[in-house]
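Sample 3 of the quickstart, ligand zinc ion:
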Amino acid sequence: MNRRHFLLGSGAALAAGAGIASAQLRRTGTEAPPTVRELQQHWRDLLAPGARIAGDATPITRTDAEWRSLLSPLAYDVLRHEGTERPWSSPLDAEKRGGVFACAGCSLALFSSAMKFDSGTGWPSFFTTIPGVFATKVDTRLIVPRTEYHCVKCGGHQGHVFDDGPQPTGLRYCNDGVALRFIPARI
Ligand SMILES: [Zn+2]
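Result:
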């Protein structure tokens, strides 16, 4: 499978609302997996011209005051101080169009619509992520420790991942909608 085949194949998977680029890549076996930069370019190619999305995962740093001025108060609380939005409060929970969910802090593409499912929890939920976009850490604020995940580009807190999700991964990425920005696909 050459690179062009990968790009087209993954694009078709997104358009059909099924399939995972990373799973397709793993099955080919012979090539090195794409870099985060290549994956970001791939997702950007599927969006409308001019759609704002980060070109790579190179970390960015801003002061707390800069973040506060750039983000809405709720997005600032979630992304920069690991807050949690109220369930059922995000319109992205019911978003069913094809497209990409990017980080509201830095525009790194984090999920595609094909990775989303209705968990019934009131938060946008995904069973996998675009590879290479998250780092995790253990959150011990509740009695039962949880695994929280952060965007690797801006360090923003996105949500918690649980092991009660659907197949094929069995994972549930429970994401704050206010930490995401949805960009519809152009097809
Ligand atoms: Zn980010």
